[in-house]
Amino acid sequence: MISTQQMHWQQFLNWLNLQIQMYQRKAAQLLQKEFLKFVKLCDVLGLAAVKTEEILDKEIEDLIAERQEARKSKEFRKSR
For the residues of 37-78, what is the DSSP string, one character each? Predict the structure, then answer.
């Protein structure tokens, strides 16, 4: 049987994981925004800022899903 203290810890860890996921999404969005600013600046300066292949959103989402699955199955080395 799970004690009240263990339940509180589990709730805290769930909350913490959600916070980390939100932070990662915000960081990715900020990075994308800053990259677009950089490309515009390069255009203004006449520098060639050619976009090469970039990681697709789908690919990123797949990596996140893989990490979450590893966490659920308690494969902590894979989930890093």
Answer: HHHHHHHHHT----------HHHHHHHHHHHHHHHHTT-TTT
Q: From first to last of the 80 residues of the chain, give the pLDDT tens digit.
A: 667 777 788 888 888 888 998 899 899 889 889 988 988 888 888 887 766 556 667 778 888 888 888 888 877 676 55
The token pair at 72 is 């659920």
- How is the chain split among helix, strand and coil, in percent rounded to 5? 70, 0, 30
Cβ atoms 48, 36 nearer than 8 A: no
Q: Are 31 and 23 in contact (CB under 8 A)?
A: no
Tokens for 67? 């990490």
* Residue in 16, 54, 22, 20 with CA at minimum distance from that of residue 35: 54
